[in-house]
Amino acid sequence: METKKLSVSFSVPANSWSGTHEFHILNGVDVAGYYWKTSNDAEDVPDWSSERYNYRKTGNNTGNLTIINSSGEPTLLELSFSSSTTASCSIFFWSMTNGQLVKESYTGTATVTLTDLALSDVPIEYQVAEPSGYYAPASIAGGTLSAQDRYWSVYDESISFANDGSFSASVTNDSGNLSVSGSSFTYTKTGTNSATLSYTIDGAGYVFEYDFQFTGENAGIYSKYADYGGGTTDVTTGPFSLSGVAVPEQYVWEDYDDFSGSTLDTSKWEVGYFAGGETVTIDNGQAKLSGTAYSSSSPFQMPSELSAAGQGSTEGNTFMFVKDSNIFGLEAEIMIPNAYNNYEAGMYLATLDSNPLGSLGFELRKSYTGISFNYDYLDGYGQKLSGYESGSLDYFHKIAITKLDGQTSYYLNGNLVKQFSSSSHDEDYWSIGSFNDEGLAYLTYADNVRVLRQGTAITEPDPVTVVSDPNGQAVVVQVGEKYNWNSSLDGVTLWGVEQSSDGWSAMTMRFENGRNFGNQGFFDSVAQPQPYDAPYEIDENGYIKSLEDDGDYQYYNPVSVDDGVIGTIQNDEGVDSVADNGVNQVDQWFFTTRAAAEEYYYSKVNPKDWMWFDHYPWVYSNEMKEWLYFMPSGGTLMYFSNNHQSWRKFSQ
Q1: Whether 387 and 308 share a structural domain
Q2: Whether residue 652 has pLDDT greater than 60
Q3: By three-state DSSP, how is residue 306 classified?
């Protein structure tokens, strides 16, 4: 299901629902849902949502897809495939009632169409950032898995995997503790940042199947299918971490050529051309790949083992290439000017296999039908297929190809477009090229080339704790010059003071078991249930990322620490809305004690409105609706709040 788009045309007769939802499968666990693309009810508004999914094949032509929405409510699609791109299905729904999942009595049916994912169809805020490294380990033997349920406030599992293939597990939930074991488990690395795990509990026979998506070193997100026997199953999702497992050797991008010289650096590149293609030159700090119209006398230059690809061709082509077995990826910025190119001109990155002769590539093309990125990939049978993304001219796009662990990946402007198994294809050459398939003149540019090599990644400085709570739990860490929230805030209570257009407000927040809950006002402690209660995580930027009821994420970026006061930029309009860019402003401050928060809060909300002094030093505040007792103290005017039974400094 990965990198597929499912268009689900459904009908739920009991509720008179009919319409189309789309599910854009982003990786092994994440899906962007586009609801009510069409509807029989004009009041239904199309809406995007970041969600999780689990897919498992149940037969030769059947499979179950479970979509878990932002409230933790699953929808099950029981799929029956008539081809690789079409299916019919029955739909079952669950809703959250008083903290419990309840299966709805109504059901639906649908027809489903599967197409390749076009990432450009998904708004950027609903895409998933690709990890900065390659983190899925080859084995977890000798390690321990810790996992939590995103939508179950009290759930923690710890599973230790022995080198002999056995395992033992301990599960803690709101029903108590459970210890189990098994004689075997199966872990499979499926990609640079993905893996699967399955095991069966001895005696009970419970079966568990995980999909892991790694987001960092030994950490990420899972979805899990559980079969408890007797027809009882469920699907859950949440964060996980591994300990005692070696992080895979990393690959690092190295600057290769920025074309700053006056001629092409022949120590880095070889050049090929045919059917009107010309040699590569340097123009204003960029590599110029161009060609003239084809003629029978057009020059021909190709490596001998690739010469068959250009012999007799009338389609102009120019390319520069590098042959290096220590390269595992190629990245470049490419651009096609509209004014100097006819239709069927293009520019590409490609890997070339000399035996058997073949290529896999990712190209930007100006065609009669429009401007698009086109790419080749292999299906499960090794057959070459094509996929597409939208493109544009007169603009530099950053594209990349990598080949790791037998899988080729294509990236566009930093986003993963396609990943597929390509173990049958060797990367004898890494190339950048341009062409015109109608034998006409063409002109393209490339710049800022990088190559991916194996080595030790440049590591960030170790985090240094700069704010802890009274129990010694780390709250904020400093990494270099940047502040981040600690990787986990579970067990921490914070008191917040926020400034908005409505004035100043107070909040008490608790972090526990992957959830963030609390209430307006200052309290010594808070426990569930609370008016505000949402799952949270610390994302790759070091921000608190909390999932709100409307399906949007609320972000908190800690940008300053001053004498224990944590200044944050908070917003729910995407990661950029909380970036420390000089435009976004600190508007919420957090404290690790109630007393410090109250002192800060009351320094901002001194009584301003009219006050009645007839009974001074007791003064009635119209704004605060209470009696205050004023008393000078060492040159400072203090006041006592009768309602709060505390002294505060009065300042103008």
Answers
A1: yes
A2: no
A3: helix
Q: What is the pLDDT of residues 405-460, one digit of tens each?
A: 888 999 998 888 888 889 889 999 999 999 999 999 999 999 999 999 987 544 55
Cis ω for the linkage preceding 74 (within 30 of 0): no
347 close to 361: Cβ distance less than 8 angstroms = no
Q: What is d(CA 15, CA 17) in angstroms, rounded to the nearest whole number?
A: 5
Secondary structure, 3-state, 542-605: CCEEEECCCCCEEEEEEEEEECCEEEEEEECCCHHHHCCCCCCCCCEEEECCHHHHHHHHHHHC
- Check which CATH number belongs to the domain holding 185 and give it: 2.40.128
Sole residue written with tokens 């401050």: 589
**Which amino acid is located at 98 in the chain?**
N
Q: Give me the domain span that covers residue 526.
A: 464-602
Residues 283 and 228 in one domain: no
Query: Does residue 390 contact residue 106 with C-beta atoms inside 8 Å?
Result: no
Look-up: residue for tokens 């001053």?
562
pLDDT one-digit tens code per residue, 215-250:
988 999 999 999 999 999 999 999 999 999 988 888
Residues belonging to the chain:
652
302 and 446: one domain?
A: yes
pLDDT in the model for residue 446: 97
Query: Structural domain tally of the chain?
Result: 5
Quick check: 32 pLDDT over 70? yes
Q: Are 1 and 53 in contact (CB under 8 A)?
A: yes
Domain identity same for 567 and 432: no
- Bond preceding residue 529 cis, omega within 30 of 0: yes
Give the whole-angstrom CA distance, residue 241 versus residue 537: 13
Is the residue at 131 inside a domain? no
Same domain, 363 and 382: yes
399 & 434 share domain: yes
